[in-house]
Design brief:
Two copies of one chain form a homodimer. Chain A is α+β, with helices and mostly antiparallel strands. Chain A has one domain. Chain A has eleven helices and nine strands. In chain A, strands 5, 6, 7, 8 and 9 form a five-stranded antiparallel β-sheet that branches. The longest helix of chain A is centred in the first third of the chain and has 19 residues, at about 85-100. Chains A and B meet through helix 5, strand 4 and strand 7 of A and helix 5, strand 4 and strand 7 of B. Chains A, B: GO terms for molecular function: heme binding; metal ion binding; peroxidase activity.
């Protein structure tokens, strides 16, 4: 079952008939953008003009949605004079904007509505940081794990990439759509919020890989092989099942900005890369294996009795302990590649917007990262330069605004 | 006739049989990337894995090639100890890299060859700046117009975005391919060149617009309506016909980095935007017209006898004078949209990588820009912050390296 089908299926849980919602989604995907209504009928729409992801549902879209090609991840800080009432106003505006734009309709405040003619699988996903709960006067509702992660041995965090009171993950298969949607969301939040950081990322374009093929990062490694795919795996690893109404069906987002030393990686040979990664570089299979999706077996040895997979490799250390098989998470990772910084340490400014989703960062991201920080061979070439944690509230029904349970009178 | 067909047709002029070249291109597009040879046969390749643009030809590819979705435009400065012989070495390496990668094969020095599995219409195009001719000991060959453009009234140029001794325009329909190809070209030039500036840009993804539909910039304006399309128009406006062997079939590139005041534009209503632009915003048609491609007639008036198109509008001032109908050029323009600069004047860091091709910048870009700088209503919202001029040598035959006529013994 594809993640998207699983998401629709879950709608039953909210008392929204799955059939009705699917019908609504189909209707939305056929609705013309405002700008197009004035143009003569065209024979056939280009595929990205009808590609929509349903906004409403048990879970927010953009988490189990197959990764689109382009990302803007934006962290905001709440302005000083904003209170609970004004946060509610912001959420009403933002939810309406996001619901409209993801259906291929322009925001009500958008005069450049032609730029939204191809929704291109746009998703807009809300995350809440610690201070949101303070301003919302709901500190008792704040999950225990919603705080800065513990410090790791290899951290090189920079304040400019850390934290944030709120975040938006904006993804689509068209960079113009992502840029325009981000502009609208930033502009309409300006009375309430300041932008803290923006992380822009990309993966292969639609049509460059086979459907469902695992994309590679700029080190050439397949990234996301052991991601959850089946509904049960999402249930076990990603969706929060307990807690208040606003939280059940939600998830936890950890964002790490990871700088990659392309100069250092470039001088490694393929064998060293494979050893450090713990996977075959060409197929992504476990060392000595043939298929990307074979299970990694750390006990396998070569003809000299030596372990096939280096115990200090990234894969060996990232694997969950036998007694905690759900110590895994959903990587929803994008590449970044910017012009070199003026006093940067490398000839490039390249890395990962490492976004991952889970039930509880302290039980999933944290123990994995602690092991990696202690021993991962990859630490020679990767550097965590930013860190943030957000809680993603559950999805909305068609009449709700984001986080309504937390902000309603 | 599509620009691409026109380009193939022109091959006759170099004594390379068009048929042979087309066959070579087809062969290249079917060749598997090195990494794929190890994988079992797959039923059907995704479209961008077989999408190649022929590298060799009368003209360099990437000029009359339909604009791909992603751009890196890179300016380099030649290191102090580099001489004519070393420039020749660089051109041999670079040409081989570019010829291989645009055919979907990895550079010979590339260990991450899986990243090149989808060439995605990759083109890599070389431009030469003033100092190239000095180092190549060919100053007599330098075109007269190859120098910084005259200063314009509205210029706000910043040294960081000006000039360059060489440039590469790297374009593809996949951002990973552009990033990886750029990395290889930069890395393999490191003994010879320093990167001066990198301008990354984007347009809509393949599948977001109708084939051949004019894309919009982030002000919502259609950009490129009057671009040359027919072979005759390219001949009249873009390709240099006279001069030395290396120059005939080449072109002149002007790069302007144009910052856009999104904050100011946002508060304009649609009528003001239309007046400043000089075109209908929805269709891109001349004011009062219906079709984007109708000819603009500045003498048309409304019921009060007032001109339909404001004489200070962008379109009115950009139009060629009647006696100089070829005072036009090929806009090959991309959007940029980066996180706001620390002390930037706007809430966004948005604009155009305005790249345009022509026979002679002093007879095409310059007079147009002079009129625009004097009176364009758009000047309230656009700011030229960078400027560079390059000459693009003619295309190569299969056994040649770039600019071979200038560098051979």
């Amino acid at each position: 079952m594809s993640p998207d089908l699983s998401r629709r299926h879950f709608l039953g849980g909210l008392g929204v008939a799955a059939g009705a919602s699917a019908a609504a989604a189909a209707g939305a995907s056929q609705a013309h953008a405002i700008g197009l209504e004035r143009e003569p009928e065209k024979p056939k729409k280009p595929p990205l003009q009808t590609a929509t992801v349903a906004f409403d549902g048990v879970h927010q879209a953009g988490i189990d949605t197959p990764s689109q090609s382009h990302l803007w991840l934006i962290a905001f800080n709440i302005k000083k004079d904003v209170d609970r009432t004004r946060l509610r106003n912001l959420m009403r505006v933002w939810t309406d904007d996001a619901r409209r734009m993801t259906a291929g309709k322009a925001s009500r405040t958008d005069l450049d509505y032609e730029l939204m003619q191809a929704p291109a699988n746009l998703t807009i996903t809300l995350g809440l940081g610690e201070r949101f709960f303070e301003v919302a006067e709901k500190e008792a509702e704040k999950p225990d794990w919603l705080k800065p992660l513990p410090a790791y041995k290899t951290d090189e965090l920079r304040e400019e990439w850390n934290g944030g009171d709120l975040c938006l993950q904006i993804c689509a298969d068209d960079p113009v759509v992502v840029s325009h949607a981000a502009r609208l969301m930033i502009r309409n939040s300006a009375p309430y919020l300041d932008v803290h950081w923006i992380q822009e990322g990309f993966l292969n374009a639609k049509g460059a890989l086979q459907e469902g093929e695992t994309p590679r990062n700029l080190f050439g490694q397949k990234d996301g092989t052991i991601n959850p795919r089946a509904r049960e795996e999402f249930k076990d690893q990603v969706w929060i099942e307990n807690g208040a109404d606003w939280l059940r069906g939600g998830s936890a987002l950890v964002v790490r900005r990871i700088e990659m030393d392309m100069d250092g990686w470039d001088i490694l040979d393929r064998i060293s890369r494979k050893v450090a990664t713990g996977r075959e570089i060409d197929t992504g299979a476990p060392i000595g294996g043939k298929d990307e999706f074979e299970t990694v077996d750390l006990s396998k040895t070569d003809e000299y009795g030596l372990p096939l997979t280096d115990p200090q490799s990234h894969v060996a250390l990232a694997m969950p302990p036998k007694e905690l098989p759900n110590q895994k998470l959903l990587r929803r990772v994008y590449n970044y590649d910017l012009p070199p910084e003026k006093d940067g340490r490398f000839t490039s400014n390249t890395g990962l917007v490492f976004a991952c989703y889970q039930k509880n960062p302290l039980e999933q991201f944290h123990p994995i990262q602690q092991r990696l920080a202690e021993g991962d061979r990859m630490n020679q070439w990767i550097f965590h330069i930013g860190s943030a944690v957000f809680v993603m509230p559950r999805g909305t029904s068609e009449s709700e605004y984001w986080a309504q349970d937390l902000l309603a009178d």
